[in-house]
Amino acid sequence: MKKKVLITSALPYANGPIHFGHIAGAYLPADVYARFERLKGKDVLYICGSDEYGVAITLSAEIANRTPKEHVDIYHEMIKNFFEKLNFSFDHYSRTTTETHKKLSQEFFLDLYNSGYIEAKTEDHLFSEKENKFLADRYVIGTCPKCEYEFARGDECPKCSRTFDAKELKNPRSKLTNSKLILKPSKHWYMRFDKFKDKLSTWIKDKDWKDNVLNFSKEYIKDLRERAITRDSTWGVPVPLDEAKGKVLYVWFDAPIGYISATMEWAEKIGEKEKYKDYWFDEKTKLVNFIGKDNIPFHAVFFPAMLMGQKQPYKIVDDLPANEFLMLEKRQFSKSEKWYIDLKSFFEKFTTDQIRFYLAAIAPETHDSDFLWKDFQMHCNSELVGKFGNFIHRTLTFIQRFADKKIPKSYSLDAMDQKFLDDINKSITDIDIAYSNYKLRKATQIIMELSQIANVYFDHKKPWVLAKDESKKEELYTSLNLCLKCIKALALISNPIIPTSSQKIWEMTGNVTNLSQQKWDSVKNLSLEEGNKLPPPEVIFQKIEDEKVIEEMDKLKEKSDDQNMPKKSIPDLKNEISYKDFDKIDMRVGKIIEVEKIEKSEKLLKLQVDLGFEKRQIISGIAKSINPDELLNKKVIVVVNIKKAKLMGFESNGMILASGEDDDSLEIPFIQDMEIGASVC
Length: 681
Fold this sequence. Notes:
Residues about 565-570 have low confidence and may be disordered. Strands 16, 17, 18, 19, 22 and 23 form a six-stranded antiparallel sheet that branches. A four-stranded parallel sheet has the order 3-2-1-13, with helices on both faces. It has a four-stranded antiparallel sheet with strand order 5-4-9-10. It has about 675 residues and is an alpha+beta fold. About 40% of the residues lie in helices and about 15% in strands. The chain folds into four domains: about 5-105 and about 250-330, HUPs (Rossmann fold), CATH 3.40.50; about 110-250, Beta Complex (Methionyl-trna Synthetase, domain 2); about 385-525, Isoleucyl-tRNA Synthetase, Domain 1; about 580-680, CATH 2.40.50.140. The longest helix is centred in the middle third of the chain and has 30 residues, at about 375-400.
C-alpha cells in the first residue's frame, strides 16, 4: 500500500490580495513538496482554501461599503486565480464559508464542550460607550503590556509579537473613534488549553522540527492558559448553543478545522464521501502543515490540543516547516505603503517558472530573505539561461547536427565519463534528501551545480573537435549520450520547482509522457531509447533585459513616493445633498506628510496632508496640544468638503478632526489600519 502524505498550506486570509512574501512562506514550499512526493510514488493529498471569517474582514468590508460575503467572494477568487497562475497543484481548494465547514466547526466545539474542555464565563470586556457596543480585538488599540508600544492591536503587539487578551492593554481605545473604552460584563466561552499542557509537552518533546518552531512551541506550552474562543459578531461560525445568540467562533479556532472540512469536500467531489477518513483517521498518514512563522502557536499548540480533545481519532501534525518572512528590497511588503509588486503586471512580463525558481532559491527557510529585482534578474539570466538552459541547448543542437537528430549510442566510458555519470547520480540522491527535508534553497543549488558540472564536462570533451574526426565518433556519441542523460536528470530533479519548463525539457529528450506523472525511481535510472529521433530544440528560458528590471525598480519607487495616485478602493467624494446637514460632511483618512510652525501664532500649524486622491494644505489650531514632531506620518480624520479659508494669510483646504475643551487640551484621534483616503462615518 502506498504511503499516504497529507499536505496543507495555511489558509490565506481573504481580506486582500496575496503577494510573493506569502508565496515564499507557506505555498511554494508545500507545492514543491507535494510534487516531489507524487514523483516518489506516494499517495499525496494537497489541501488548502481561503480563510474568510474574522473582524478584520468586517472592518474592511465596512470601509469598502460591501457585505462581508461580497468582500470575501472578491478576494477568494482573486487568490484562487493567482494560485492557478503559479501552477500550484492543490487537490482541492476550498473556503471556510461553506456549510460543510460550518457544520464541522460546530461539531468540534460541541465535542470539546461536552468533554469539559470549554467553559462559559461572564467577564468584563472592552465596551465603547460612544459606539454602544463591545469591541472585538481588531477594533481596539492600546499600549502593549510587555514592551509599552503605544499602538498595539487588541490581540497582539506588532512590535514584540506577544499575544494577549485585549483587556491586558494599557489605555485601550477604539481604533475607529480613538475614544476611551470601559470594561463591561459579557458572557463568552473559553477553551481550557491549560488542561493539555502535559499531553502537548509529551507529544512535542520528540519532534524533529526546525529549531525556531520547536523552541518557540515548547516555551509557549509552558505558559499555556485558557483562551476565549468566541466573540460578539454576526460574521463567523455561530456558536451552537441556545444561550450564545450573537456569538461566533474566533477565526483562529475555526480556520485550521478548514483543513479537515476541505478534505471532506474533496472526498465528496470524487464520489467517495468517507474517503477523507483514509487520511485524517489513519495514524500512519504523514501530515505536514506548511505555514509562516506567525502561525506557529496556532498549528503547534492550539490546533493539536483541539484535535486531542476530539472523540474522533484525528491525525495530528507530524511536521511543521514554518518559514521566516520575505522582504521586498529590504522593506516589508505593504499594500498601504505601495511597497509591493503588482502581480497582474508581473505575469505580463515574466514567466511562472522564473518566479517559482527565484523564490525557491531565496526561500526564507532559516532567516528572513529579500526579493531584489537585480538578484531576480541574475538568477534568471546567469543560472536558468546561462548554466541550465545553455547546457541543454548546446547538447541538443550538437545531437541535431552531428548525431542525425537521434539519441546517440553510448560506448565504453573513460574516467571523465564515469565521473560525470557519478556526479549525475549523486545529484539525484542529494536533491532527494533536500526535497524530503523541505530545503528548496539546497535543491536549486544542486540543480545549478549539476548544470555547471555538465557545462564543464561538455567543454572538456570538445564535441566540436570530436565531430571533425571520424575515428572519434564513438567518443562523440558517448559524450552526447551522457549529456542527454544529464538533461533527463535535470528535467526530473527540477520538476517540483519548475514544472512547465521541466516538462518541455523532458519532451526534448524524446519523451511524450507527462513527467509529473512518472515515478522518481524509474526516471532516475536515466535509460534512453538509443536511435529514437529527437524533436528540434527550443529555447526554454528567456533572458531578462536590464530595461525591464530598471522599469520595475522605478515603478516600485514611484508607487511608494507618489502621493497623488488615487487608490481604487477610495470612494468618490460625496456631493452636497438636501438631507440633514450632518450627512453633507465628507470625512476621510489623511496622512500628515509635512508639519511647519506658523510664525506669530502660538496655536496654528501649517500641515501638508496626503488624502490619497490629492495633497492638501490645512491650517490647524492644534499647536498648543501636541508636539509638532509627533504629527509627522500620522493618519488623522479630515473634513474634506469644508469651504476653503485663509488663516494668518495661508490658505486652508480642510479641517483636522480634534476634540477638547480648549486649545490647550485638544485630543486628536489617530488612525492605524485604515487606508489613506478611506471614508469615515
